[in-house]
Task: structure prediction
Amino acid sequence: MEYSYFPGCSLKETGIAYDISISEITPFFGIELTELSDWNCCGATCYISIDRATACAISARNLSLAERESGVLVTPCSACYTILKKTNRYIKKYPEVKEKVGSALNRAGLSYGESVEVLHILEVFVKDIGYSALSEKVKRDLSNLKIAPYYGCQLVRGDGFDHPEAPESLDRLIEALGAVPLKFSHKARCCGGTLNVTKEEAGLSLIKDVLKSAEGADLIITTCPLCQINLDLYQRRLGFSIPILYFTQLIGVALGLSAARIGLNKLFAKADLFFEWR
Amino acid sequence: MLAMDILSEIESAPGGEKLKDCIQCGTCSGSCPVVEYIDYTPRRLFAMAKAGMVDEVLSAESIWICCSCYLCTVRCPRGIEITDIMYVIKNIAQRERRAKGDAPFLIEQFSNIIKRFGRNREFHLLSSFFLRHPEKAFYQLRFAKKMAFQKRLILYERPISGMEELKAMIEGA
Result:
């Protein structure tokens, strides 16, 4: 299965472990990801706060580039996922957005025929690959691990997939890998995003609520680079200490890959408590 | 800016057409994860916009504390895209130069980085923020040090090849 891959800015910087683990595990399932050539930032929640029309336009440049390639754009970042899908929806729904985006693309010598499908990498694993294919590849026994599936917010909300408040796909993925998913109230609550920078007390309280709700888990898995870094960096300050992995790293662990190969050495809370460190 | 203008601007923006359907039930405010940190709840903010309280709406701190989690949007019984209406208000506040504080500053730095490199640079972005807040920078330095050691920071990288095209898209908009 071939897809165009939109890593997003975080996966090339602080969230590089997510990028590394994705490129290590996808070949096991016949997933061929080709990085979208010369992609630009999706704009995240920032550009859309300045000017929605321009935010849609710069996001549409990526859709336009993907249309020339595989036509299916896969991203691992929940913010990129939301903005790219929103742009697609807005272009189709509102003629004035379509017109503005069209003329902006035109200035860059591009056009967009509205045909690109945007997927989150979790969707690729649970829909295109499927739970049974995941189970078949498991090499390491994870049955003694209780794992908290943390979906975060944007992945499952309005433009997302799965249930907007009580999603199950990541729970089923944990079961497919042979571990036990923890039921916890905050699995689809917000980590605060950039609030930890701009309004610290609000951001920290959201992180604390998530970590407290996940008490009893041996580790937490995430689907977004911002969720991961927020939980991982600030937990010590809040009195918690639990490994926060990307779900793709957990798949890598289940496949029997070494810690370094899936970037477990590029996290804050040590994950070697659970896995052989070699 | 006239009061009626801002209301009609919000209502004519994509997604804003549903604002008139608001029944003031307060599901949005009750769902908001940062409700205890905001000056006006979403329900109240919308009532104020409808009542023509332009100054208060555009200078509300709430819009900059909204963390775009979309919980209000998925719960709204009238199907109003509340998070997107927050963006519309933010856009107007930016344009009218009413945006103040840390969140608008971070957003402005972010957009400057995009205009220069075509991609966000997290280390650049946060460095610019903590230069403005040296009192908070000390705590963050440990993180930066460890991440530099883990090769998780980009100190410099060239802009994307299509930078000129991207600039043309942004500047002509």
About this structure: Chain A touches chain B through 65 residues (CB under 8 Å). Strands of chain A lie at 2-5, 32-35, 72-75, 117-120, 146-150, 180-181, 219-222, 244-246. Residues 120 and 161 of chain A are 9 Å apart (CA to CA).
